[in-house]
Amino acid sequence: MPVPKEYLALLSRWCADRVPAHVRSRLQVAYKIHGEQVTITERRPPAYPELNSAWSIARIAQLRHNEPEKGLWRLYRPTDGGWTRYDHAPSTMPEPLLAEVARDPHSVFWG
Fold first, then answer.
1. CA distance 106 to 73
2. Could you report the per-residue pLDDT of 24-49, keeping only the tens digit for each?
3. Sheet of 28-34: strands edge to edge?
4. Mean pLDDT of the chain
5. Are 67 and 89 in contact (CB under 8 A)?
6. What are phi and psi of 54, to 5 degrees?
7. SS3 string of the chain?
8. Which residues are CB-contacts of 29 (< 8 A; sequence separation ≥ 6)?
9. Do residues 76 and 110 make contact, with C-beta atoms less than 8 angstroms apart?
10. How high is the pLDDT of residue 5?
């Protein structure tokens, strides 16, 4: 089941709130939706633009709405091989999981 559209504004606002306006030319937090997954990334411009014009992308977290029959969202953290479920209770809304990513008490999302 795809991510409900009512969460798009929430996700956009949450990502924008992570980075002060005066820094956004050097750092961006973004999200991408693929089916029931929302992947949050951090983007930075190339260190040497003359060599490579692509921004770097680092995976931060993933929220999955993969239990829609129960209305549950789960949080995942990046690992070398993909994603690992983060030890946090599932939620019926993404906001508590986004708050946990922002708080990052175990330094697994922002480093």
1. 20
2. 999 999 999 999 999 999 999 988 77
3. 28-34, 37-44, 56-67, 72-79, 82-85
4. 91
5. no
6. -85, 140
7. CCCCHHHHHHHHHHHHHCCCHHHCCCCEEEEEEECCEEEEEEEECCCCCCCCCCCEEEEEEEEEEEECCCCEEEEEEEECCEEEECCCCCECCCHHHHHHHHHCCCCCCCC
8. 15, 16, 18, 19, 40, 41, 42, 43, 60
9. no
10. 87
Structure tokens at 29: 């937090």
Please state the length of the chain: 111
Residue where the block lists tokens 């983007």: 43
Residue given tokens 């260190």 in the structure block: 47
Look-up of token digits 């750092």: 27
Residue type for position 22: H
Structure token digits, residue 54: 């692509």
Both structure tokens of 97: 């999981």
